[in-house]
Design goal:
The protein has 3 domains: 339 residues, Catalase core domain (Catalase HpII,  Chain A, domain 1), CATH 2.40.180; 89 residues, Hemocyanin, N-terminal domain; 174 residues, Class I glutamine amidotransferase (GATase) domain (Rossmann fold, 3-Layer(aba) Sandwich). The protein is built from 19 helices and 22 strands. The strands form 4 sheets. Strands 3, 4, 5, 6, 7, 8, 9, 10, 11 and 12 form a 10-stranded antiparallel sheet that branches. Helix 3 packs antiparallel against helix 4 and helix 5 runs parallel beside helix 10. It catalyses: 2 H2O2 = O2 + 2 H2O. InterPro entries: Catalase, Catalase_AS, Catalase_clade2, Catalase_clade2_helical, Catalase_core, Catalase_haem_BS, Catalase_immune_responsive, Catalase_large_C. Pfam families: Catalase, Catalase-rel, Catalase_C.
Length: 725
């Protein structure tokens, strides 16, 4: 029988402590001098990084070990949801590619899209500050194409070899498993400073992009540089873009924090609710294109995943659209078992020497084997719609039954011969004959070494509102770092981007906003350059709409049924979602004798909070307002309205409901409200819309305010913080 002490002694033999003196080794004990760069071909004469080499044993081991760290939950992107839909080409891309999925305007390609957070576990909340995954599986007639991207166009690292490190740094710290699904801790920000290449990405992650209002209102990016090859065998470099028709919108930070506790499934429920109500999310799909001749024409390397291709230099060519129109039938089999590989492409789509993409192509297939087994591509959600014919056999959970007496090639029956290579044949995948020459070295070319200019470009291109939000996000995150070395260093890094930004953050968290040289010995000053397509305000919808927007209608016994009916019917006509919120979720009587004067609310005031809706409407009815100001519920009602105002949401009221708005916003200047007396006129200021009685004019004005998503003028004029929400 083994004693406890003997057990601990045995454990101690397998315990070691991280220290500066213990040098890095592989799992088989060999010291390697470089933990940052995959072994690759490098042409120093032409300043070109070539393909990463599979012969690198240390890189393979590091990626393999990382891929197999979690069973069965995804190591990253564990928290997610998805839906099915269709993809259509509206303007053929045949001049650039032979891929029929991108050229055939008569096709309707089925797709599955999975949205996710990155850092949190499966049980974490939807609305945490984080990058969002945006992965599209195209079930094409030529095979599966997986476009595995994010809602942010750049990434933290340039070389895939660093991927385990950035995720380890972002995940809960190893000594206490804290915090869950947050980057507000020492290790994450230590990594951000120690890797200057992450500077651009952490600016995006601290922006409003990291707290989206809805998956339906997120952009999607392929992130990596891919290639397209046309029927003539000509190649171009591309980046893929998905832009939501509803516009790009976000939560405000206080709203996101509260939702994480009040409704941790907010985003997945929002997506399912919209599809169930027939408000199908839609995106425009496009590419940025750089010819081979122009590959080296920029001051950045187009293969660098930490850089965007500024749209004033490389415009987006939109040529297709897709929508999500069917929810899954079972979450586990269709969403949790959905698996993606960046290496899954179809004829006409290819890879570049993007160092991050090269490593992803190696890693993803290995990851799926770890989670789902060698036959993961036979699962229904992952299976191609075209015939699959090869000699792969056996393995765990094999579903396919293959008849015949040969399982090899070549064979005496000439069964399943390889397709004949043809440049123009859209059914056959041909590897582009790219020239590769250079020396083996663990390095990247000089253009990969500049890390500040695009961070400046992004910050400069944001609106004043977005810049303020980014400053506040940095102040929040760094406030949670208790190691002064960490936050003082980050303030120094911010000074390289913008002195005003650094000073603002330094004042809040400590540190000195002084410029310091980067890794290449240069000090950056902000030149003020901007570019389109970086601010969310660049993607306002062409036609603002209330479709899919949730509008709370707060009522008590004696409410005005004509006002409620008008708002409900008007919302239904435009695809909006009305939610009756009562003092109780049992029948509530309206005034008068209308058939609709008795209703059962969808929720009561304690069951649903203002954070879960896009706008609030208070109809008239003297008795209703008296019921809403009874001591038992008055505090919650006023909190609803003040919180909605503080979160910049549209607020509407008619008749006696105006008095409730007036009390909730008492002390906030510049809010003009209608008078209830006969002859009073409609009033609208800072997204607060009131009218003495319900009318089409009121509905139009109220809906216009809702369709703007947020009333940011409250924030810029300092009104949103004047109520205690």
């Amino acid at each position: 029988m083994t004693s406890a002490n003997a057990k601990f002694d045995d454990m101690a033999k397998n315990t070691h402590e991280i220290s500066e003196s213990a040098k890095l080794t592989s799992d088989y004990g060999v010291h390697f001098p470089d933990n940052d760069n995959w072994l690759r071909v490098v042409d120093n004469e032409n300043g070109r990084a070539g393909p990463s080499l599979l012969e690198d044993p240390y890189a393979r081991e590091k990626i393999h070990r990382f891929d197999h760290e979690r069973i069965p939950e995804r190591v990253v992107h564990a928290r997610g949801t998805g839906a099915f839909g269709t993809f259509r080409v509206t303007d053929s891309l045949s001049d650039l590619t032979k891929a029929a999925v991108l050229t055939d305007t008569s096709r309707e390609t089925p797709i599955f899209v999975r949205f996710s957070t990155v850092l949190g576990s499966r049980g974490s909340a939807d609305t945490v500050r984080d990058v969002r995954g945006f992965a599209i599986k195209f079930y094409t007639e030529e095979g599966i194409w997986d476009l595995v991207g994010n809602n942010i166009p750049v990434f933290f690292i340039q070389d895939a070899l660093k991927f385990p490190d950035v995720i380890h740094a972002g995940k809960p710290e190893p000594h206490n498993e804290v915090p869950q699904a947050q980057s507000a801790h020492n290790n994450f920000w230590d990594f951000m400073f120690m890797h200057p290449e992450a500077t651009h990405m952490f600016m995006w992650a601290m922006s409003d992009r990291a707290i989206p209002r809805s998956y339906r209102m997120m952009q999607g990016f392929g992130v990596n540089t891919f290639t397209l090859i046309n029927a003539k065998g000509e190649r171009v470099f591309v980046k893929f873009h998905s832009t939501p028709v509803l516009g790009v919108h976000s939560l405000v930070w206080d709203e996101a924090l509260k939702l994480a506790g009040q409704d941790p499934d907010f985003h997945r429920k929002d997506l399912m609710e919209a599809i169930e109500n027939g408000v199908f999310p839609k995106w425009k799909f496009g590419v940025q294109v750089v010819s081979e001749a122009d590959e080296h024409s920029f001051d950045f390397d187009i293969l660098d995943a930490t850089k965007v291709w500024p749209e004033d230099l490389v415009p987006v060519r939109y040529f297709a659209e897709f929508e999500l129109n069917r929810n899954v039938d079972e979450f586990f089999t269709q969403t949790e078992q959905a698996a993606f590989c960046t290496s899954h492409v179809v004829p006409g789509i290819g890879f570049s020497d993007d160092p991050l993409l090269q490593g992803r192509n190696f890693s993803y297939f290995d990851t799926q084997i770890s989670r789902l087994g060698i036959n993961w591509e036979e699962l229904p959600v992952n299976r191609p719609v075209c015939p699959v014919m090869n000699f792969n056999r056996d393995g765990a959970l094999r579903h396919k039954i293959t008849k015949g007496n040969v399982n090899y090639w070549p064979n005496r029956h000439n069964a399943h011969p390889p397709a004949k290579a043809s440049t123009a044949d859209a059914q056959v995948y041909n590897d582009y004959p790219a020239k590769a020459a250079g020396i083996k070295a663990r390095t990247l070319t000089p253009k990969f070494r500049e890390h500040v200019r695009q961070a400046q470009l992004f910050y400069n291109s944001l609106s004043a509102v977005e810049q303020t939000h980014l400053q506040n996000a940095l102040a929040f995150e760094l406030d949670h770092c208790d190691d002064s070395v960490v936050y003082e260093r980050i303030v120094t890094r911010l000074a390289q981007i913008d002195s005003g930004l650094a000073q603002t953050v330094a004042e809040m968290v400590g540190g000195e906003a002084k410029e310091a040289a980067d890794g290449e010995g240069s000090v950056s000053t902000n030149q003020g350059r901007k570019a389109p397509g970086l601010s969310q305000f660049d993607f306002l919808p062409e036609k603002p709409t209330v479709a899919g927007r949730r509008v709370a209608i707060i009522i008590g016994d004696g409410f005005d049924p004509s006002a409620v009916d008008l708002i409900k019917s008007s919302l239904a006509a435009e695809g909006g979602i009305p939610l009756l919120i009562g003092t109780k979720r049992s029948p509530i009587k309206g005034s008068g004798t209308m058939r609709s004067s008795t209703v059962t609310p969808d929720h009561h005031l304690e069951g649903l909070r203002s954070t879960m809706v896009d706008a609030v409407f208070v109809p008239g009815g003297k008795a209703s307002i008296e019921a809403l100001i009874q001591p038992k519920v008055k505090g919650r009602v006023l909190h609803w309205l003040r919180e909605a105002f503080g979160h910049l949401k549209a607020i509407g009221a008619t008749g006696e409901g105006i008095a409730l708005i007036e009390e909730a916003l008492h002390g906030v200047p510049s809010i003009q409200l209608s008078t209830v007396e006969e002859g009073g006129e409609l009033a609208q200021s800072y997204g607060v819309v009131t009218a003495p009685s319900p009318s089409k004019e009121f509905v139009t004005t109220f809906f216009e305010s809702i369709a703007q998503h947020k009333n940011f003028d409250r924030e810029t004029d300092g009104l949103s913080t004047m109520v205690a929400y």
